[in-house]
C-alpha cells in the first residue's frame, strides 16, 4: 500500500470530527501518515493503554484472518501489484466466501484426511497467475500530488489517532474506571 498514492474514499465520524480517507491498523514500521494508525509504543495513562490494547487486538485479528486465507488460497499469497483494485476486491470476497463455505461444510463432517493432499508446495508451478492489469491510471499529476499530500499528512495522522483514543475511551473506558 505504501507504493500506492490511493486510499479508499470513505466518510466517517470519530469524536465529533469528520474524516474521508480510510485508515489501516499497522505496526510501528509504517510511516505516520493519515491512512496508517499504529499502536502507541510506550502508552502513558489509561486512555493510551486501552487504545493500544484495542488496536493491537484488532490488528492481530485481521492478520490471523488474512493468514488463514493465505494458507488456503495461493492466489491470496502471491503478489497482486499489477491487478486493479476491483479485481483484487472480487478475488478477496470470493476467497472469503469459499473459506466460509468450506468451514461450514467441515463443521458438519467428521472425516479425517491428510491436509498435505490439498497443499501446494512453493514453486510447484500449478497455480495460474494472470498478469494483466488495468491501464486506467489518472493523468492529472496535480490531482495525484494533492492526494499524496493528504495521505502523508502527519498532523491528520495525529488528529485521527487522538480522536480514536478518545472514542475508544468513551466506548470502553468506563470498565477501566471500575478496576
TrEMBL record:
Q: Which InterPro entries match?
A: Harbinger_derived_prot (IPR006912)
Specify the superkingdom: Eukaryota
**Which Pfam family, any one of them, does this sequence belong to?**
Plant_tran
Q: What is this protein called?
A: DDE Tnp4 domain-containing protein
Protein's organism: Brassica oleracea var. oleracea
Q: What is the lineage of its organism?
A: Eukaryota, Viridiplantae, Streptophyta, Embryophyta, Tracheophyta
Amino acid at each position: 500500500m505504501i507504493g500506492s498514492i490511493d486510499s479508499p474514499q470513505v466518510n466517517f465520524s470519530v469524536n465529533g470530527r469528520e474524516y474521508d480517507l480510510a485508515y489501516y491498523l499497522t505496526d510501528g514500521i509504517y510511516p505516520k501518515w493519515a491512512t496508517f494508525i499504529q499502536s502507541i509504543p510506550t502508552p502513558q495513562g489509561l486512555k493510551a493503554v486501552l487504545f493500544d490494547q484495542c488496536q493491537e487486538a484488532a490488528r492481530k485479528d485481521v492478520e490471523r484472518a488474512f493468514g488463514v486465507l493465505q494458507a488456503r488460497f495461493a492466489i491470496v499469497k502471491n503478489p497482486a501489484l499489477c491487478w486493479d483494485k476491483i479485481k483484487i476486491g472480487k478475488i478477496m470476497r470470493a476467497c472469503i466466501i469459499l473459506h466460509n463455505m468450506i468451514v461450514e461444510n467441515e463443521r458438519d463432517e467428521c472425516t479425517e484426511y491428510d491436509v498435505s493432499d490439498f497443499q501446494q508446495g512453493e514453486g510447484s508451478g500449478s497455480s495460474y497467475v494472470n498478469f494483466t492489469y488495468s491501464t486506467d491510471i489518472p493523468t492529472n499529476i496535480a490531482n495525484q500530488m494533492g492526494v499524496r499530500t493528504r495521505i502523508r499528512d502527519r498532523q491528520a495522522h495525529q488528529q485521527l489517532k487522538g480522536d480514536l483514543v478518545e472514542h475508544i475511551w468513551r466506548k470502553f473506558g468506563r470498565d477501566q474506571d471500575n478496576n
